[in-house]
Prior knowledge:
The complex is a heterodimer. In chain A, strands 2-1-3-5-4 form a 5-stranded mixed beta sheet, with helices on one face. In chain A, a hairpin with a 3-residue loop joins strand 4 and strand 5. By secondary structure, chain A is mainly alpha-helical. Chain A is globular and about 90 Å long. The N terminus of chain A is likely disordered. The longest helix of chain A has 28 residues. By secondary structure, chain B is of the alpha+beta class. In chain B, strand 4 and strand 5 form a beta hairpin. In chain B, helix 1 runs antiparallel to helix 2, helix 2 crosses helix 3 and helix 3 packs across helix 4. The N terminus of chain B is likely disordered. At the A-B interface, helix 1, helix 3, helix 5, helix 6 and helix 8 of A face helix 2, helix 3, helix 4, helix 5 and strand 1 of B. Strand 4 of chain A pairs antiparallel with strand 1 of chain B.
Amino acid sequence: xxxxxxxxxxxxxxxxxxxxxxxxxxxxxxxxxxxxxxxxxxxxxxxxxxxxxxxxxxxxxxxxxxxxxxxxxxxxxxxxxxxxxxxxxxxxxxxxxxxxxxxxxxxxxxxxxxxxxxxxxxxxxxxxxxxxxxxxxxxxxxxxxxxxxxxxxxxxxxxxxxxxxxxxxxxxxxxxxxxxxxxxxxxxxxxxxxxxxxxxxxxxxxxxxxxxxxxxxxxxxxxxxxxxxxxxxxxxxxxxxxxxxxxxxxxxxxxxxxxxxxxxxxxxxxxxxxxxxxxxxxxxxxxxxxxxxxxxxxxxxxxxxxxxxxxxxxxxxxxxxxxxxxxxxxxxxxxxxxxxxxxxxxxxxxxxxxxxxxxxxxxxxxxxxxxxxxxxxxxxxxxxxxxxxxxxxxxxxxxxxxxxxxxxxxxxxxxxxxxxxxxxxxxxxxxxxxxxxxxxxxxxxxxxxxxxxxxxxxxxxxxxxxxxxxxxxxxxxxxxxxxxxxxxxxxxxxxxxxxxxxxxxxxxxxxxxxxxxxxxxxxxxxxxxxxxxxxxxxxxxxxxxxxxxxxxxxxxxxxxxxxxxxxxxxxxxxxxxxxxxxxxxxxxxxxxxxxxxxxxxxxxxxxxxxxxxxxxxxxxxxxxxxxxxxxxxxxxxxxxxxxxxxxx
Amino acid sequence: xxxxxxxxxxxxxxxxxxxxxxxxxxxxxxxxxxxxxxxxxxxxxxxxxxxxxxxxxxxxxxxxxxxxxxxxxxxxxxxxxxxxxxxxxxxxxxxxxxxxxxxxxxxxxxxxxxxxxxxxxxxxxxxxxxxxxxxxxxxxxxxxxxxxxxxxxxxxxxxxxxxxxxxxxxxxxxxxxxxxxxxxxxxxxxxxxxxxxxxxxxxxxxxxxxxxxxxxxxxxxxxxxxxxxxxxxxxxxxxxxxxxxxxxxxxxxxxxxxxxxxxxxxxxxxxxxxxxxxxxxxxxxxxxxxxxxxxxxxxxx
Lengths: 648, 301
């Protein structure tokens, strides 16, 4: 089947117009020695070691300028050579595939080096704990103290458990293996998607490379959590459905069925990915249907365009049915879990537009990112915007010749730009960041389209000898800006103990207190700060209170007064019988701003030491265990208000 | 490289023998999975064996056994897509195996998982055998071949690259500093008080409380720590401590040694609620802060 024979899913055959696309790959050009495979692998290895040096520097408390600079020297040394191979105007498909594989490895390495042997990110604790529970209980669908709805999306824990059982690796290593495979699969799914829609291996490889630059790719989606696994299924659904829409015969059915299997895997693995998948599928299906209806008369029902419509409808319908059934029968609590984020962020964004509003958040607040990285973080969306403008200019006269699904996928990439606004809303920032892993699929197609077409159309504005350097500069800006726009410093770099971060506040001290407490006094229900909670839940399986405005359990440590009778009643009724405090919360304000979530009465401030010491002088708390920094109090709130005598 | 109209590189191996060979591979992998085999062996043989057999079978179901053309460009074989689908569908087969365990009421145990995974893999293999090799009308079906670029030279090159990168990653991991946290952990050894009971004593009674101190990151050496007790902020009467000698104890994460002891003191003369504060200060340790326990004590006549 040649390129010209590939039927478009929603065009009448007689109107099929061949859009001029890629120049064919050529193999004749010799590869410079610096770009040879031994050189590429050597540079990747050297870059990896330099990234390791940057982590060592940050762990030792070096100046941010130093370790950030070292990190980017290492990563650029490793990344740029394969990027050149991917983007080269000549070269064999296999060369691009290998180069893309190298990029996939290199975009996984920084996160792997961040915490190679144990969880460190908030969601990692939850998923690691879920996998440990599955293996110890030998069944799925177990409650999770850190992210309750993980219980209803067992895909990640299930895969980890199977890999662990088959290999004997540690639970953590098994999970890292699963995430690595998913990471590579996601990149190559974008490659297939780009190749299908833009019909060139170069375009596919460039699309995958651009996708690898998205802010979530290097740290967020490579953490051990369900999104990093489900995102691979998400992209494969799109790739396989796109393939099926362009294929005839039995393969069409088989590819559609495989797309549905990937949908099912997404459904059982991650709620948000499934939600984005439904949105993307619904949009594509709607556009494909409308365009096919407008173009093709009813008599052309058997045309390839209608067959393409059928494919998208089949995948959408199947996904809706599976997701709906899963939601209703298994994962209904997900609705109440997600609704505050969906509604709250829109409300916050609306409130921010009101005069004198103080509901917003400052970007890069408390950040130690060097100025140059912040600058590139700001530049990255502008570069993406320029690419989109260029794409619009290139496509303005020929969009009728394009497949509807291609155009829709590209248009969905434009969602990236309004989503940036949500970064200013406290509840919306998380959702905005999460959306980029999905909208970047569209941006990747747009970018690949522009890069593929640019040298072919009109008079090139950049001389040939400058194209590679200019391209590398743009790539560097988007890469650094993308990573800079992702997770914050404590997530990206190891460092000395820093109170109030999920990552650098972790201590063996808290972990062993949890282990000891559960060994001595189980069953135990605990009130503690959000950072100590990670250790107590993950390593000791303790039941930790989730403070809220209606259940201000943090007031036990964050106020200079006894708990209110209402709070005492809730604590007694819920059997929260222990309080664990880390005195380091008195040394400095939490990096993340709060110690007890949104209900923290001392948000942005360090807890006065007197508040913590006071607990040694109230009748309702007995310090039954302590270390240099942690104090464990058994609560006896029935003694609230009783007088204490002095002297023996 | 297989292209339309060309029949080069089409393997004429007997598909029945190939299928039988793959069944043997699966059964061997399962045998290794349930046996006490070292992790590297399982990692190299068991997981790839099952994933590749299941994945390649499922990929053959999707793309067909024979090498067709690339789905986007007729000039190339679909080797890349086939390999990608092999990995993707292999991963999905593992997920299916895990999800089938509760359905089949099989525990996710060291024995249960390999059995279910094997069942899934063999089912896919036999489905592929039935769907893509039969009916063969008495002729030997053509089997898929690997793409030309996946030659031995390239495979060795990739293996060398993987080794170099793995060594670099290992080097980068090794250069990270390891932080040893040094601290002591003291806990009350009275299960009744620890679990919620109020310490209740008679006036002027001799009160004895057991405590345990664990050290982390260093070893306790001092058999005679300083022990102080205050009641209501005032030094208690009749305080005596009876610590045992420190002993090595590796019963927890980073735990090095343990020191047990009992402290005795005289209860207050008047009834009421008091706070009793016990301070234990071991000597010769890198930890300077004393270890403190504080409890509410009720004095009843």
